Amino acid sequence: METITRGAAIYFVVLLIVRLSGRRTLAQMTPFDLVLVLIVAETTQQALLGDDFSITNAALLIITLFSLDIGLSYVKEYWPWLANSMDGKPTMLIVDGERDERALRRARVSIEDIMSAAREAHGLERSDQVKHAVLETNGEISVIPRSST
Amino acid sequence: MSENARSEDRSIEIGTDRRFQERFWTAQRIAWVVFVLIILAALAGFSGKGGPFAHGVADGAEADLEYPRYTRWLSSDDMELTLAPTGAAEATVDISSDFFDIFQIENVRPAPKDSSVNADGQTLVFALESPGGSRDITFNLRAIQPSAGKRFTIRIDDGPPLAFRSVVLP
Fold first, then answer.
1. Does A144 sit within 8 Å of B12, measured CB to CB?
2. What residues of B are in contact with residue A91 (Cβ under 8 Å)?
3. Can you say whether the dihedral through the CA atoms of A84, A86, A89, A94 is positive or negative?
4. Cβ contact (<8 Å) for B28 and A22?
5. What does pTM read for this prediction?
6. Over residues B45-66, mean pLDDT
């Protein structure tokens, strides 16, 4: 029983902390973020397994974690607020060429981040070539360029 | 598509919810403050394993006890008992039975001359005058289950109980 409760507790703790840390933490894999992900993974593993390294314990934990994931995906369908809280919603950062400065500040996204995404995806050179910029739920920035006509 | 998306995103079909997002950003900032407070509390010792508040001291006529005020489930910690000089060749230490519901004693330094278990707990007898004897006794403990601050007692030579509480975090 301890395996299941420990696995569920760690799952929700990590989910809550990752969700509250901000979406940019998910998408920006700088060397610092990579180290952070590796250390968090290692820390979580220790807390999940405790001193029981049996195959049974590992199998129970994996089943528990996947079951939680599947169960929550169904629960989110019935409670949209839970889906919003867990997954978030996209945020418009630039709308029809106009920057939403408040959204940029609150989401901790700079215009340089947007231009980096714009160059990578579309080869854009200037910010006035950006029609829309969206901060997606996975932390990625989607850029819709202005049409060339 | 939400109401928000239709009003502000005239030329793009997207499901945004700015009102929710503003509330979430506020909740996020509050959470960051809570993270800092948790770190400060941990540095102060409220999560055990070091820090000024991690250990407490219970003073008595027969002994002083430094005990883990905050510790963690399945982690190890130390408890230090300093016996008052009485001139006696040995000392008897009685630990209440409920202590062993929460803690496991993994090692005792110096080792007791004798130990016995009874309904009230465990009794340890220490030889103080023999070679290797000492008035400073260290118990290496391991918390075996979480506890919200249960009260335990230690008696020295049937004297008045030294009471202390330990919080074992999960």
1. yes
2. 16, 18, 21
3. positive
4. yes
5. 0.75
6. 91
Q: What is the 3-state secondary structure (H, E, C) of chain A?
A: CHHHHHHHHHHHHHHHHHHHHCCHHHHCCCHHHHHHHHHHHHHHHHHHHCCCCCHHHHHHHHHHHHHHHHHHHHHHHHCHHHHHHHHCCCEEEEECCEECHHHHHHCCCCHHHHHHHHHHHHCCCCHHHEEEEEECCCCCEEEEECCCC
| C-alpha span between B104 and B76 (Å, rounded) | 9
Nearest to A90 among B8, B16, B22 (CB): B16
Residue B104 in contact with residue B168, Cβ under 8 Å?
no
Q: Kindly report, residue by residue over A108-147, the tens digit of the pLDDT.
A: 999 999 999 999 999 999 999 999 999 998 888 999 999 8
Chain A to chain B Cβ contacts (< 8 Å): 50
Assign residue B15 a region (left: φ > 0; alpha: ψ between -120 and 50; beta: otherwise): beta
Rounded Cα distance between B158 and B72, Å, is: 31
> Percent of chain A, pLDDT > 70?
92
Identify the closest residue of chain B to A88 by CA–CA distance: B21
